[in-house]
Specification:
The protein is mostly helical and 536 residues long. 60% of the residues lie in helices and 3% in strands. The N and C termini lie far apart (86 Å).
Length: 536
């Protein structure tokens, strides 16, 4: 230390470095960039710093340790932005960094609780969705999805999707946070959310008050409960049996606030069209999952999923757009009293039933777990359904519909005996005198036989494909079946909630039954597998 001309102490760069704990080269660099300025130089050109300069370096070091850049430090010290303002901005930046680190900590903690494979998958997903990328993605999603729609309550909900994890998140919340990013980045959520927002904007639906929200929850509970009961009973959404279910739901919907048109006061085409429009917009699996994930992140109870029920009801509404519509359509078909089947419908049914019986007998229990062309059905599920079809149609022919449900186990320990027993009962019921000409609702008995014939024929194809056996069952009967199934099922909606998948192309030279299967939504294998199992 020495005294300058004004009797103020000054220090050389080495002494200043020791006082501040900074390397000499850092003090020199900070001098060069304007953080601190020497007050004098020696005759040899060495820099000298006074007490104010040393104090300035002490403060600069503190700000650097807090993570500030040199530009921020210089602005704060020079008064371009007050120290308080700079510190406030830096506090916000530090809080963001802390949240980011906590998020990374939570994800890594979750990984440590998992197996190596699960942990690797989670780390991969995290690497593809960095914190800042996620925020940018949420903003882009919000802008692209809503555009200029006047739906502020939707914007608030979407902004919430960018919420950070809680400080001490559960494994479930970490998983939800990661899945939310993937969902937003996917192709399903944005168009589905856009449809809902457009519907809300079109009908002037704003944020609901407590009473309106409670009413909507009650209405949702009503229709989902009714649909679940129908699904448990095996009622197909694309059948006339769905019509009474729709009527009950429309009756509850008409007086509710969900019906935004006061002129629609009774069940009919207009009411069902409006209800279908609402459901088509709202019953979206991606949107449902989006809302569930937000509940998980917010620590709120997760509402039960209703996507399956929504698909069932939208399909039922498309099939029955007005009361009695599907019934009337089928009745028109049933008035045709021609018999297109070789040797008559009863003989054709018998032959098909025997062919399917041979496949059932050739099925071994170790093949039960094999997949089938029927989505989500194993060979055992398919066998159970074949037994059920014989039970239900045979029971109807006898005037004694079964009291058990389609979802119960009908195979027991002996699948061959179960099928043979049910098949014999159905065959005996159909061969009773006068059954073919007797009326069963709008249809004659021969139409009931025809229905079981088609079921057995198509599901026999499913079983043969699953087992890797020949699929060309009863070619002359299959040839006659194609125009019949086209006439009966051609107008049905090919939706996820329906009985029939979208038609598939049949390979060139496909057998008659392959063509029937393709029309009914089966993917026809290019060649038969040699070791069993339906090729996927």
């Amino acid at each position: 230390m020495r005294m300058d001309d004004a009797s103020q102490p000054t220090w050389g760069i080495g002494a200043v470095a020791r006082q501040t704990g900074l390397p000499v080269k850092v003090v020199r660099h900070w001098s060069d960039v304007g953080i601190v300025a020497p007050v004098d130089r020696t005759a040899g050109g060495y820099r000298r710093y006074d007490t104010a300069g040393v104090a300035r370096l002490h403060l600069a070091r503190t700000l650097r340790d807090l993570g500030m850049g040199l530009g921020e430090i210089r602005n704060a010290l020079d008064g371009e932005n007050g120290l308080a303002e700079v510190a406030t901005a830096h506090v916000a930046a530090l809080e963001t960094q802390i949240r980011r680190l906590r998020t990374h900590q939570a994800v890594l903690r979750t990984v440590t609780r998992r197996t190596t494979r699960e942990g690797l998958a989670l780390m991969t997903r995290t690497a593809h969705m960095a914190f800042d990328d996620r925020r940018k993605l949420v903003h882009t999603f919000l802008t692209d999805t809503l555009g200029d729609l006047d739906v502020p309550f939707f914007r608030e909900g979407l902004l919430a999707s960018g919420s950070d994890l809680p400080e001490d998140p559960t494994d479930e919340q970490v998983e939800a946070w990661l899945e939310l990013g993937e969902l937003i980045a996917g192709e399903e959520l944005a168009p589905a959310m856009r449809r809902i927002a457009e519907y809300a904007a079109r009908h002037g639906q704003g944020e609901q008050n407590a009473a309106a929200a409670a009413e909507m929850r009650a209405l949702t509970s009503t229709w989902t409960t009714r649909v679940r009961a129908a699904m448990r009973a095996g009622t197909a959404a694309d059948s006339p049996a769905a019509d009474p279910v729709i009527a009950d739901i429309v009756a509850a919907w008409l007086p509710s606030r969900a019906n935004t048109d006061p002129t629609v006061t009774s069940d009919g085409t207009e009411a069902r069209t409006r209800l279908h429009e609402q459901l088509a917009a709202a019953a979206q699996p991606a949107v449902e999952r989006f809302r569930q994930l937000l509940c998980i992140l917010g620590g709120r109870p997760v509402p039960a999923g209703i996507a399956k029920e929504g698909r069932w009801l939208t399909t039922a509404l498309r099939t029955n757009p007005a009361p009695g519509a599907r019934d009337a359509q089928l009745e028109a078909l049933y008035t045709d009293d021609t018999d297109p089947w070789p040797c008559g419908v009863l003989d054709a049914f018998t032959r098909v039933q025997e062919s399917v019986s041979a496949l059932v007998q050739a099925t071994a229990p170790e093949q039960f777990a094999l997949p089938t062309p029927c989505e989500e059905w194993t060979v055992r599920d398919l066998l159970d359904h074949l037994v059920w079809e014989n039970i239900i149609w045979g029971g109807l022919a006898n005037g004694m519909p079964p009291t058990d449900g389609h979802s119960q186990d009908h195979l027991g320990d002996n699948h061959i005996a179960a099928f043979e027993t049910a098949a014999a009962q159905a065959g005996d019921a159909f061969r009773q005198p006068g059954v073919l000409e007797r009326s069963f609702g709008p249809a004659l008995g021969r139409r009931m036989v025809e229905q079981l014939l088609i079921e057995l024929l198509v599901h026999g194809w499913d079983l043969a494909a699953a087992l890797g056996r020949g699929r060309d069952l009863e070619p002359d009967i299959a040839r006659a079946a194609l125009p019949v199934v086209q006439k009966i099922y051609g107008d049905l909606p090919r939706t996820a909630g329906g009985s029939i998948a979208p038609a598939q192309p049949a390979p060139e030279g496909a057998s008659p039954l392959d063509q029937v299967a393709a029309f009914l939504g089966r993917r026809v294998p290019a060649r038969m597998g040699s070791a069993g199992g339906f090729p996927r």
